[in-house]
Each structure stands twice: as C-alpha cells, then as structure tokens.
C-alpha cells in the first residue's frame, strides 16, 4: 500500500514539474497585455500578420496553469485543427544579440504537414526580426530570418531529387513595400505553408493575414514558462524561444 502511495505521489510530482497535457482545443490562450517596457512596445509595434497557406490553424501551446497542448496525430488532414475555438496565440521574445535587436515571433500548430498531408504531431514556426534599436521612435528592420523545415526529400526510385536543406533559417534583407500592412514600415505580412517537396516554412506575403494575441516570454506565468521548458514536442520541432533553445535559435538565425 505504501509502495502504491509513493508511486502515485511520484506521478503527481512529475506532472507538476513537467506540466499536464490537455486536449489541443482546450488550451486557453493568454490575452495580449498592454505593453509597458521599450521591448514590449517594439514587439507589439512590429507584430506581423500571418496568412495560412494550408495545414492547421494557429493554436495556443500552453495555458496560465502550465498545461501543455497534446497536439494531434499526423492523420486526417486538417480535421480538428482548422481554427482554435478559444483563440490563437503568437509567442514572442526579444534581446540584444551581437549589437542587433532581435525579436522572435513563434506560432504553434497541432500537426506537422508534408506535401500538404499531415505527417506528425506538433509544429513550431518562427521568424526573427533584426532591428537597429527598439528605443528609436521608428526602428528599422535590418533583416528577417524565417524558420524552415524539410521533413523529406522527394525521390524517384529511391534516389533523392535534391539535397536536404539542413540550415534551419533563410534570411531576407530587402522587404517589398507590398509586404507591409497598410503602407506602414513596421508590421509585415507573412505566409506560412508547406510545399510538394515537404518544405514547411515562413516568408513574406503581399496578402493580408491575421493578427494573434502576442504574449512575451517574460509575460507568461511561471507555470507556463516551466511547462514550455520541459515539454517534449519531438526532435523535429522544439520550442524556439525557451531558455534551453533561445540563444541557439538566434545563433542559427543571425544573418550578419
């Protein structure tokens, strides 16, 4: 009996540390707080729109209690994931990196797609905007680094048609005026989608998308941050902005 009680206690403690997993459509997103600091104001000012070019809609990954999404199996196309019933979320984190101000915006999707078909559970995509100085009245975007992923390389008779692209980011340094929202020079339009060759990634778009409520890393609850640190989303898609991965993500994205 004591052994059973100890086992139950260990299970409860493990769930407390790692964060419980709940259904993907039961995760309540964070409301976007009013920005207070220079970093928060810059993140809100430069928050992009996101247009979806196929696959699942954007979903929240964690709630205030630290409960993590369970995602969805890589089956049944977009069943159950076209739109979050409780609202979408974009996560952000910013810092100085090698004399440039980096703002990362990250989105979570319950399924990972390849050639327009669901492949596996979970997907994180992100963009890093590199600014000159967030304290300026109108900071300048110096470059944008888009995350990308190739799950498979297309083949004929088991022979690859192209080498696998290993670099996790692609960089753009010149942004067309058509890719800014309403003629501004701050908020951009982005497109997220996959291709027949299993590319999954982001890029600029001339078409309007949608905004999601932005929550910065420091604005999350302690429970939510702890859950995002310990959650296992798989080897192919990790949380890019947690303490474990943020510095390495910026190093991979740095274009200068």
UniProtKB/TrEMBL annotation:
> Could you tell me which InterPro entries the record lists for this protein?
NPP1
Q: Which Pfam families match?
A: NPP1
Q: What is its main location?
A: secreted
Secretion signal, residue range per the UniProt entry? 1-19
- Can you say where in the cell this protein is located? Secreted
PANTHER family xref list: DOMAIN PROTEIN, PUTATIVE (AFU_ORTHOLOGUE AFUA_5G00600)-RELATED
Name of the protein: Necrosis inducing-like protein NPP1 type
């Amino acid at each position: 009996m004591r052994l059973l009680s100890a086992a139950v206690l260990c299970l409860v403690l493990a769930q407390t540390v790692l964060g419980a997993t709940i259904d993907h459509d039961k995760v309540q997103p964070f409301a976007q707080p009013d920005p207070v600091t220079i970093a928060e104001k810059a993140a809100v000012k430069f928050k992009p729109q996101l247009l979806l070019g196929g696959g699942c809609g954007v979903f929240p990954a964690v709630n205030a209690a630290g409960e993590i999404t369970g995602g969805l199996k890589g089956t049944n196309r977009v069943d159950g994931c076209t739109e979050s019933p409780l609202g979408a979320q974009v996560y952000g984190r910013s810092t100085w990196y090698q004399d440039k101000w980096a703002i990362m915006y990250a989105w979570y999707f319950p399924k990972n797609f390849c050639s327009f078909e669901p492949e596996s559970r979970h997907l994180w995509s992100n963009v890093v905007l590199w600014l000159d100085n967030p304290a300026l009245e109108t900071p300048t975007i110096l470059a944008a680094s888009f995350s990308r992923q190739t799950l498979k390389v297309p083949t004929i008779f088991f022979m690859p048609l192209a080498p696998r692209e290993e670099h996790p980011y692609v960089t753009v340094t010149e942004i067309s005026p058509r890719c800014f929202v309403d003629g501004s020079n701050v908020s951009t339009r982005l497109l997220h989608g996959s291709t027949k060759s299993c590319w999954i990634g982001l890029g600029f778009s001339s078409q309007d998308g949608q905004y999601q409520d932005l929550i910065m890393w420091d604005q999350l609850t302690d429970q939510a941050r702890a859950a995002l640190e310990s959650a296992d989303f798989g080897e192919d898609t990790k949380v890019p902005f947690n303490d474990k991965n943020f510095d390495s993500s910026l190093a991979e994205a740095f274009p200068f």
